[in-house]
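Subject: Sanity check before I submit

Could someone independently write out the structure tokens for this chain? I want to compare against mine line by line before I put it in a report. The sequence has 136 residues.
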Amino acid sequence: MIHEVTIAFTVAVKNGEGKTVKEQYLVDNCNLFAEVEDAMYVGFDGYKALDVIAVKRSRIKEVANSRTNAEEKMFIATLVDIFHDPEGNEKEIKYQVAFYSQKMSTAWAFIREYVAQGYNMKVSAIKETKFIDVVK
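---
Independent answer below. Compare away.
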């Protein structure tokens, strides 16, 4: 199960004072909110005054790839899976997939290849997110 997490921590600015910074992450392979929170505290052990301020279950069903370089950003694609029920009626299921890409044009190329895996899917939307990374 994938969760969306917001953390807050303090960083020192030029004049020596502390500034609170908020960042958003995805956490994969945790079932309980307590496991998610623990993964964040363990993963960010060196951060000053770290606090997990929000955790929620994500609508994202899968993280489709891994980051290959520091310039890649995280995108989310909303996909529509089209199928027919036993009576022959066409039905749609929408779900989201997260993935890394450097820019929107390469994001579209990646998701088109992902959708062409032989499923009856179409891309409804792609957007760049504020998520920094995936914590596993």
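---
OP: Matches mine. For the report I'm noting this point. The longest strand covers residues 73-84.
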